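Note to self: keep these together.
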Amino acid sequence: MNTYSYTDIGGRPHNEDAVCIRQTGENQLLAVLADGLGGHGGGEIASGIAVETLDSGWTGVSSPAVLYDLIMQAHRKILSAQTPVCRMRSTIVALSVGAGHADWAYAGDSRLYQFYNGELVRQTRDHSASQVAVMMGEITQDQIRFHQDRSRLFRALGQDGGLNVDTGSVDLTPGNYAFLLCSDGFWEYVYEQEMASSLAQAASPKDWVERMRSLLRQRAPENNDNNTAAAVWLTV
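Structure:
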């Protein structure tokens, strides 16, 4: 497996994104990305708790249930760290790879994309008001990027009450796989067809991500959001 990740403060005073990739064996890997919600205060603390909880708690076992449990642990830790004036919250997306399968779990609008032999075959569905508008046929998937309610999230770590975490899994049949985890500050400026075309031209995960970052820099305004991505390549 080959990997690469970065995080960038963008045009904001603080970077509220966090990311990590940890490979514990030839066929064992964990990648986690979190995006703190700035409107609630303490976003960088919440995203840091989220990533650290999964990074320190993962034992190398890859399954949706393991990721789900770790995310719920992070949710509870963020809730316990909140104060009346700091209702910190964070999105999260996590990918783990085991022998013969890959698993993921997420809450919010940080995304996971899966490419198989160069083709986009799966992307997570945002937990946002604008995603609901897509499901109701009011806007297209691409129009999420500019929708007025795009920042309204229905799920985030640290929210009041319970948290529903979506999970998934795929058997790794022979072929070439590329996974991309990214915050909304990244995918907002890079379209899915450009992710695929950049992948076709790239020689490594770093080359792939940097090609997409070049597109982001061309389009993002000076006050653009923090942007973060993690890429995992593997051949079965």
